[in-house]
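re: the backbone from monday

yeah here it is again, tokenized this time
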């Protein structure tokens, strides 16, 4: 094989590799990161990011509980609609990368956990970049793999407030 043929083949291989590496979605993706402690606000050591793991048909996440009502631990009104929401509504906040600049606002996500499945409407961002202030109820930035949901979602998954996994449970989710 001549040098020109090898060069042509190499150029084709590089072009194919570049095409294969083009992201399918405009979302940035990275590995799960759950390293913020409750004390990171006091020590100014909170991890901040704007990416989340890639969304698949079985995206691994940590399900947490949020009170989206006035005075609840969500802080300010929901980002998507500027409103507060009752604990009886199946609503969710997604980590910054999954929230993807609001592209999932108002959309239904499917959550699988505790041997059950349910849905929730995305109404907010679980901010992975900012925290420790009144808009975030004094809480540190969210890890990048959080689906933060109302009590109604936990009930739909069959997890009561008395259950040990209530408030922090491994789940999978998808659009």
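seq for it, each position gets an aa:
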């Amino acid at each position: 094989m001549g040098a020109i043929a090898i060069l042509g083949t190499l150029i084709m291989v590089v072009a194919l590799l570049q095409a294969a590496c083009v992201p399918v979605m405009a979302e940035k993706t990275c590995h799960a990161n759950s390293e913020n402690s409750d004390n990171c606000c006091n020590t100014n050591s909170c991890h901040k990011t704007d990416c989340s793991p890639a969304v698949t048909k079985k995206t691994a996440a940590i399900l947490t509980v949020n009170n989206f009502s006035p005075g609840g631990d969500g802080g300010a009104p929901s980002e998507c609609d500027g409103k507060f929401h009752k604990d009886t509504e199946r609503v969710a906040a997604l980590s910054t990368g999954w929230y993807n600049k609001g592209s999932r606002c108002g959309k239904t996500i499917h959550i699988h956990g505790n041997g059950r499945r349910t849905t929730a409407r995305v109404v907010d961002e679980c901010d992975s970049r900012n925290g420790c202030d009144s808009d975030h109820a004094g809480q540190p930035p969210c890890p990048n793999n959080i689906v933060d949901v109302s009590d109604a979602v936990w009930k739909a998954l069959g997890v009561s407030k008395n259950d040990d996994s209530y408030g922090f449970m491994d789940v999978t989710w998808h659009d």
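The chain has four helices and six strands. Confidence is low (pLDDT under 50) at residues 3-26.
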